Amino acid sequence: MMDFHRPRTRAAEIEDDFTDTDNYPAFQYAYNQFLSEHLAELSREFNGDLQQALILCVIGQVFMSERMRSAASGERQPLGITASRLADVCGIPRETVRRKLKRLEQKNWISSNGDQSWTMVIDEGVATARRDLLQLDQRAAARLARMHATLERLVRRPEDAAPRKCSAR
Fold first, then answer.
1. Cβ-count burial of 101 within 10 angstroms (0-12 exposed, 13-18 middle, 19+ buried)?
2. 43: pLDDT strictly greater than 60
3. How many whole angstroms separate alpha carbon 139 and alpha carbon 30?
4. Using CA atoms, how far apart are residues 77 and 156, in angstroms rounded to an integer?
5. Rounded CA gap, 148 and 29, in Å?
6. Which residue segments constitute the domains of the chain, with CATH numbers given?
7. d(CA 82, CA 67)
8. pLDDT tens string 132-147
9. What is the 8-class DSSP label of residue 75?
């Protein structure tokens, strides 16, 4: 029987580097620092309502995914997610999701499509939520860049693992 060994993905290699016994404390520290700082900022911005932040995040993710797919294919796709699907994805009861959707709608960050789905409100090409949360977004980008730089130091690059060729003199 032939062994058709598939090469490991780069993601699997990086995961191994992160879970390596020597790297794990540094990886875990960088991740926890990023996550705790970001969650604390979200909590402040959303007055302690992290479920509302999560729901907005999922709606934004669906919107951006469909927007990128539409741009690539040239076809206009529906841009929304239902309250039921949000409840399933977020693990939040449907009635709670509906209350959070109403609050986000009152802020003019999301709107109903009329088909029971919800999407981001866009004004002059920019999501109103992004405009209102711009400073939070900028701090998150800076925080993510710091975490990336930290994690990059923990990852072995493929060229570091490759055997070196001897040069003839």
1. buried
2. yes
3. 16
4. 40
5. 13
6. 22-153 (1.10.10.10)
7. 17
8. 999 999 999 999 999 9
9. P
How crowded is residue 49: how many other Cβ atoms within 10 Å of its Cβ?
14
Contact between residue 50 and residue 42 where contact means Cβ atoms under 8 Å apart: yes
Tokens standing for residue 140: 């998150």
Q: Is residue 74 classed as helix, strand or coil in its secondary structure?
A: coil
Alpha carbon distance 101, 105 (integer Å): 6
Structural tokens at position 125 = 């090409």
Which amino acid is residue 45, in one-letter code?
Answer: E
Residue where the block lists tokens 């693992």:
161
Q: How far is CA 127 from the centre of its chain?
A: 17
State pTM to two decimals. Answer: 0.81
Which residues in 7-50 belong to E strands, given as ranges? none
